[in-house]
Give the backbone structure.
Amino acid sequence: MKKWGFLLFLLLSLFLTFIYKESSFESKADIPNVEVLKYEQHENDKAEDRRASENSQQTDISEEQIYQGNLLLVNKKYPVRPESIKLDVVDLFTHSELVKGYGLLDRTYLSEDLARKFSDMITAAGKEGVSNFFITSGFRDFDEQSKLYQEMGSAYALPAGYSEHNLGLSLDVGTTQMTMAKAPEGKWIEQYAWKYGFILRYPEDKTDITGIQYEPWHIRYVGLPHSAIMKEKGLVLEEYLDYLKEKKKVSAKVESKKYTVSYYPFSENMTIHIPENHEYEISGDNIDGVIVTVYK
């Protein structure tokens, strides 16, 4: 009887392990459909743009726009400029209406817009039974970053101006359960954060590219469709910006909404044409160009 009991327990354990792996496996339905335009199509697009110029809105691009937006690359080579920092940073301790579905480990500052987007994502996770989130770190000004660097050293912190936390688009997320690398919260973020415009900035298999050790807690907002394209292609931000520079134009369809993403190297007296009756966003790359995202 004891032998049969042991065998039943063993079979049940194997079954539950299988179910867990299946539930955490990323199905194809969770990967966005991304279509890359061929180079020849860009020439056709240019001709069409010229023909449709009368039905488009013209937008001037200034040099400072290279250093503003959600797609800025910040690393040891490209620091945060003062004009790049989000202007809507608030103290979440005094804005409890923004803290929904998660807790705060300490006094935390964050972009108000980013806090709302993060809350939307955490609400979605909660509906799937993943709900033990808290923010361990948000926005840091240069003084706080400098102090952290002096206290922790280069092995665990970056100098002031070279951390994404100085930008206002990143935050560190923890869980009350276990380490983020093993917790359901960490797995959920890695699998689904792209749907809400977030990316896992420093994944385990890209340390040679990012130059930063694996950080399953550090997420960065880039917005849609960029997070979807990066997820589908398996790219980190460094690779994604190189990808856009190479392709010049990429189209993506996410939840029935079609986006066109175009990269433009900056030049003096630069103007771009946006199709009439379309919405658009412009972000610099913090290097030498701008990315224009058009959608309807």
Summary: DSSP finds eight helices and 14 strands in the chain.
